Amino acid sequence: MNTGGFGFSFGPGDDDDDDRRRDQNPFGAFGMGGADGSGGLGDMLNQFGQMLSGMGSTMNSPEGSGPVNYAMAERIARQQIGQVTPVRQQDTTAVEEAVRLAELWLDDATELPTSSGKVVAWNAETWLTETLPMWKRMVTPVAQHMNEAQLESLPEEAREMMGPMLQMMNQMSGMNFGMQLGNALGDLAKQAITGSDFGLPVAPTDVTALLPENISRAAKDLDVAGQEVMVYIAARESARQRLYRHVPWLVERLVSSVEEYAAGLVIDTSHIEEATRELNLESGDPAAIQDAMQRLQGMDLSPRISSRNAQAVSRLETLLALVEGWVEHVVTAAMGERIPSTAAMTEAWRRRRATGGSAEQAFAKIVGIEFNAPKVAEAAELWRRVDVAVGQERRDKVWEHPDLMPTAEHLDNSADYIDGLLDEGTDDTFDEEFAKLEEMLRGEAEKGGNPDGPDTPDSPEDPEDPEGPAKN
């Protein structure tokens, strides 16, 4: 069973999985499940000790309150990143030149104009600082609704007993979220190579950012010139920024999908209650309690977590695929003939996405939502076929409204979507031709012509006209 970024699984539960019933963590409902899925009592106590040792000033700071202790998250992330090399001026210049060239080539491959924002070079520490606000926006609703769902899942008697301890439990939960978030952000900061890496719009608005040091490390095994790698990555990031800048609904739709999923979180702890009943803790017998504690050490009673709004994850998955697929197609069209290594770099990018640098893995680590890998290759092929069928301008007009976008089903069957575009195109052509005909007829009428044919009263040749000219 996969675990979410905060030690929870967001996959569907299996009521018939007897092994899962035996290997669960009774403390998972309080945000104290192990991130690696072990979650035994010893691990739980270890984690609790780490949380207590990190309290300090973070408990009393504004960033330390709420469903996630962001002060702790940022501190742990910076520790995880370690020492970073300051960005050199030559790196900034290289990034600016790569983006400038990439933008020039992209102009031939898309109707969407350049984002016209700042072009900057970052290191891992800057990536953390600049992207943290957007991560907070996506993480906070998940953590908040998770806490609410945890309380709702407890028996009424347990909620009453926890009343006096509720504030402390919320702080402990916030610290637990903060610890795991910090570790995840620190890890991603060391592998991110652009501001909106992983296909997620986490960089500030109108900022095109590349991380030269991380790019060099990621490209060391490629048999491609460093300048070509830099231009390729610049093209991908610039293409994303064109979408984020000129498709007003896109970023909000991505974020609202996360918020919608979080609002419907549901936790099922019936299997935990069943397991604890079998431990016979109510007997008060010291020997029975000791035996129960020993049995607890080998259990991992994680709550089963789902959402009433599971369709939001499917929408998120599809939208991420369409964004990255469009980027891949446009960059290939812009660079394929100019830089022969484009195909090799695209394949390397796909391998990177499959082994860690992907949106779904970033979401699982940081936001705590798990979903299937977006079908980027299928989306890229869909955009290529749309391009061939209706042209570049029509292809990019699809982004004007979310209702015009391909659906998840279209990723597996692009023909239906393309047929719809062609049908619309035929209607548009007919309307244009009809409008031209009407304009021509009006023009002839204004010039005194006779567009209505020989049946008009003005025709002197009309034999049925009783008022016609007299014969000589």
UniProtKB/TrEMBL annotation:
<keyword id="KW-0378">Hydrolase</keyword>
<dbReference type="InterPro" id="IPR042271">
    <property type="entry name" value="Zinicin_2_N"/>
</dbReference>
<dbReference type="Pfam" id="PF10103">
    <property type="entry name" value="Zincin_2"/>
</dbReference>
<feature type="compositionally biased region" description="Acidic residues">
    <location>
        <begin position="458"/>
        <end position="472"/>
    </location>
</feature>
<dbReference type="GO" id="GO:0008237">
    <property type="term" value="F:metallopeptidase activity"/>
</dbReference>
<dbReference type="InterPro" id="IPR018766">
    <property type="entry name" value="Zinicin_2"/>
</dbReference>
<keyword id="KW-0645">Protease</keyword>
<feature type="compositionally biased region" description="Gly residues">
    <location>
        <begin position="1"/>
        <end position="10"/>
    </location>
</feature>
<feature type="region of interest" description="Disordered">
    <location>
        <begin position="1"/>
        <end position="36"/>
    </location>
</feature>
<feature type="region of interest" description="Disordered">
    <location>
        <begin position="441"/>
        <end position="472"/>
    </location>
</feature>
<protein>
    <submittedName>
        <fullName>Zinc-dependent metalloprotease</fullName>
    </submittedName>
</protein>
<keyword id="KW-0482">Metalloprotease</keyword>
